[in-house]
Model the fold of this input.
Amino acid sequence: MNTLSIRDLCCLFCCPPFPSRIAAKLAFLPPEPTYSLHIANIPISTNGAIDQKPSSSSSTTKTSVTDINTSVRYTIVFAEKAEWQHSQSDISKLEPYFVTTSRHNRIACLYVNCTSDPKYYILFSHGNAVDLGQMASFFIILGTRLQCNIISYDYSGYGASQGKASEKNMYADIEAAYKSIKQRYHVPESKIILYGQSIGTVPTIDLASRHSECCIACILHSPLTSGMRVAFPDTKRTWCCDAFPSIDKIHRIRSIVLIIHGTEDDVIDVSHGFALYNRIHIQHQIEPLWLDGAGHNDIEAHGQYVERLLRLIDVDIPQILLKKQQQQEQQQTLSSPPAPPTLASTLIIPASTTNGTN
Done:
């Protein structure tokens, strides 16, 4: 996290309308874009406008997909700084498109088609200082390992997305990306897993807390409780000027929540993970993963990371679904009216008759 200047501190405590400026200073570090999206071989610049000439530093490998709202087709071109040695097979798995948020920003989304028969669809909100170009190779590896397809997006001001990075834009960004999963790919809520990493846990928690049935599970990777608590670790309450108050939202999530956090995280201390876990509704708590010795940026290098995700998909979620099914069946049984009593059939035997003779 960046340090706060005296001016920032004055704005924070004396001028409540300005915390968004501090939040941007603390949390948002958009990198130089590592990719571009093209429409009919004309590149789309990082602010969503159409450039006249393609970048000479970009790779010529492309993939295309139909836009969510129109018949326009896009291609993705990786710049050299993406530092990804991709194959044509990998490229064919990537489908970029744009969506427009409720705050009128056009943001870039990427559908990673890892398998033709996915167990689930993961909406991945990535961490800070990266964009889709840097994350694409990781998405392919992770999705293939988990047998899930992944949809991700760049926050406003990141990559090829329009606008500026802000807390409100971030909430609108994930909402638009989430709606695109349902509208574009017709995926039901029961097949969606929300995944947030670092700053990406902020919109993930917000979305899940506002829509109780939006996903089957929620994964929080190195989450933060709030902006103030990161900047000032001794903060014990949420102030009116606090940004990213996930600690006050997480109890409203109505899907199971998996928290993954490194014990040696020097960016967002593991105590944030502990605090959030303790605020999850007890019915939705599942075994977290506290990775001993892991920091903020190396959790994926530990074998327990994928193992825990596989257990979530193959064990935890099926158990939850079975439990829900049993509860529904029990409720149906209790609410069903009792069956009318059944009268036993009576066998009538006619009395024997005699002819009156001996």
Observations:
- Confidence is low (pLDDT under 50) at residues 12-18, 51-66, 345-349.
- DSSP finds nine helices and twelve strands in the chain.
